[in-house]
# Entry
Amino acid sequence: MLDKIHTGHMGVEKCIRRARDVLFWPKMSLDISDMVLKCSVCLERRNSNAKQPSEPHKIPQYPRQVVATDLFYWNNADYIVIVNYYSLYLEVHKLHGTTSTTVINKLKGTFSRLGIPDTVVSDNGPQYSSKEFSEFANKWDFKHVTPSPHYPQSNGLAEKTVQTVKHMFNKCKKDGKDRHVALLEYRTTPLDIGYTPSQLLMCRKLRSVLPTTLEELIPKTPIYNKVENKIDYSVRIRGSNGLWKPAIISSQHPASRSYIVESQDGGIYRRNRRHRIGTREEVPLTTVENDTIVPPVRYEPQCNLTPPKLAEPTSNINNSPQITSDTETTETQQIPSDGLYITRSGRIVKPKIFESM
# Structure
């Protein structure tokens, strides 16, 4: 009877519903489930597991801490690409073969110029999974990390870099331009954090075909905290009406990809990176009744402070509110504790924290 129920090789739920329509015996559902899950025909042709959410790699703490490498084929030749996880600085070298010895020699040349990384990420190709490459990793004292076989997404930076380099080389070949100049321009183009790959790696910009000044070529140390966080502090969050409203990121929530943001009206919310967009606004502005634009004042909570005394109302209602600097505000007003803040009308308000909307 179990074989007749599973004649169409349907799944567990459908087989159980089909049997319950006309049959019954004790532990029928358990017997059907056990039979379907042991069917060799169904197991050979079952679907793959559902995709898991992507989990990004941790941002390195300094340049050349983690690098990724991969091989690719272009214009009847083999190439190796080496990209830095921290600065996205890439190097491309033509290979005269795809053996482990050839790959190791190219890596040695790069490591001798830029330093030995702590970790090297690559796929499970024969060049990287050989005994010779394992001995090279032990001798040069770096950790070799490989993703699961047939799962190139784990080495996504190298795969994306290969795609970028191929597109660059194809366009240069079509236009008759030098691909080495294209690589130089890529290394001197600022990233979304404002620094170029060469600045993050060498603390200086590279001289390219575009005109530049002497001041731009002087070495300068980047702000590494900004590189590590990569947070757009001036953002907009989606409101209940579907519009994007100005806000400021106060801090990063302990949960992954979650942030604490402060809206224009003083509300504090927790939002996922999906529900915020980075902007180029310097600071969200507040509009008062007479169309005067006032930058919001953010108060830091302090202890053992008394609430301020409210000023006497004035008869002249046409006077526009005066804009005071941060130093004047701290000297003339005392700030309440426990996260309280003072509104424009002088009321002391405790902000509400919304976990979600």
Notes: The chain has twelve helices and 15 strands. The two ends are 52 Å apart (CA to CA). Residues 284-308, 313-333 have pLDDT under 50 and may be disordered. The CA atoms of residues 123 and 151 lie 9 Å apart.
